[in-house]
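Fold it.
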Amino acid sequence: MNQLTLILFQSQEYLKQNCGDSDSLGDTDLEPESLLCIDRVTKLRRAATQDEIDSANWFFAEYLECVAGKKGWGKEKYFQSVSKAVDRETNDILVTVSDEAFALLMLENYRDKWILRYEEACIAGGRSNTDKRIDGKYTSSVKGHTEFGGWSRKGIRRFNALCELVEADRISEMAAAAEAGFMNYMRNTEKGMAIVAKTRTGIAPDNEEEEDETGDDSAYMEPF
């Protein structure tokens, strides 16, 4: 599978596992890209509606580790809250404000591209066949990498704005309860229950797949 489409296939699986079928949800949009609605995702800890909560859970559970690291946040998301999670050996913060803001920026920048790749992959049976380069909202293949690593000035300003959004979100009245709710959600997933059970019995959780030390998934985060 073209890994650029993996985020959307994961969102589709998330919807199947957590949102039931279309008959039970009435008019709710069950397309995977509904989870990637920027207005919903940026609610983060202030999510109030079920759609917003679903998007926030997906962001923290599935997507954030692409920036914050699979071996760090990817493992500790079952045991520590997002904003307070630290490395057990070094005590380094696992998810910084910048991590959250950059993950949101990447999502906003490449959302339309990922959705197109996903749709193509669905038609082609799991693989996107197009070689066409698609510009991001704040990046362009024409501009290259000469200025701000390929990001436009508008993109830099948007990143700064997202940092402010995340900072405010982390200290909002809903933040503590939302993070506790998310950790509870993670522990009650099938994988979460298995990991927690193994930890309680002193058995180290198995690594189901090879993970990058930094969490830098270039397939997710290619510049253009």
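Residues 97-123 form the longest helix (27 residues).
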